[in-house]
Amino acid sequence: MPVSTYSAAYLADFVQGELLGDDCTISGIASLKNASGSQISFLSNSRYQSELESSKAAVVLLKPEMASSAPRAAISVNDPYLAYAQISQLFVSVLLDEGISKAAEIAPTATVSSSARIAAGAVIEAGATVGAHAVIGANSVVGSNASIGDYTQLAANVSIGYNIRVGERCIIHSGAVIGADGFGFAPSREGWHKIAQLGSVVIGDDVEIGACTTIDRGALEDTQIGNGVKLDNQIQIAHNVVIGEHTAIAGGCAIAGSTRIGKRCTIAGMSGITGHLEIADGTHVTAMSLVSRSIKEPGAYSSGTAIEPHNSWKRNAVRFRRLDEMHKRILELEELVKKLAAKG
Fold it and tell me: In CATH, what number is assigned to the domain containing residue 274?
């Protein structure tokens, strides 16, 4: 559990680094520019190196080759940004009610660990399971026969549908909806006929899901989110999608049904991925890209055009519409050149 202060020596040991300089008491973590004399900071991006000399931070996390540049003490560590991430967890301060609120509704057939925390207004439906030390926030719903793993935290107003499985140590932020029906309809002359969504959603361990993100249940097979996946806010994941372990997806992305995304991929913000595709392990998709065909080899992929002055963009947009015509004319010219060359 977080405490109010830590010694610099403790923090160095915590991140497996080396303290260079005097030990001191640390009460918080801040940027180089805003840190006070009782806080720790970090430098991982060279663009902020100019702020190091003037920083008031008591201790700075630095790479070994830069440790001597600290204005006061330093913790020498190979990856300052990772060390910052680890230390930041020590200063999280969230007030949680202990036990189960009398204002929560828990079905008689639900199984809730005695160490779980269930806030007011939460609903745990029939046959659901809530694991040890799990947290169910105010007004969140755990549907019938759903399971919430040990140490998993649901913020306020999270909806977990029926038969959904959530692993251990997950964090699901407010407004997330896990297990809504996928978008499945069969067309006919009379209109659209709904296809019952009979699958589930299976979420692995150590997954974080951002606010207002939606993950649809499968039509027949399950939608699957692998261990260690990180999902930002307002992402749409359609039915039967499979996301491999440790993939990270930024805000505003939309992934259509039955697409399979590999392990350790990164999908940048506002990107769209169409359905029934395969994305190779280790793929990086840059912001606002449209992925409309499978990616077989890892690497960085982009689509669209970069920003430019409006008048220039208008001219290029007109030319873009003529690309097919220009391509045909180039082929005709190439054939003509070949014929003239053959005649000597």
Answer: 2.160.10.10
d(C-alpha 192, C-alpha 58), whole Å: 65
What DSSP state is assigned to residue 138? T
Question: At CA 19, angle to CA 15 and CA 20, rounded to 5?
Answer: 150
Number of domains in the chain: 3
Is residue 293 within 8 Å of residue 275, measured between CB atoms? no
Do 115 and 33 fall into the same domain? no
Residues catalogued as catalytic: 239
Tell me the percentage of the chain whose pLDDT exceeds 70.
98
Q: Is 267 helix (H, G, I), strand (E, B) or coil?
A: strand
CA-based angle 172:178:184, to the nearest 5? 155
Predicted confidence band of residue 94 (pLDDT cuts 50, 70, 90): low
Burial degree of 185 (CB within 10 A; 0-12, 13-18, 19+): exposed
- Considering the domain architecture, whether residues 152 and 217 belong to the same structural domain is answered as yes
* Alpha-carbon separation of residue 59 from 174, 176, 226 (angstroms): 35, 38, 37
Domain that holds residue 238: 105-301
Tell me the pTM.
0.88
**What local confidence, expressed as pLDDT, does residue 306 receive?**
81
274 plus 315 within the same structural domain: no
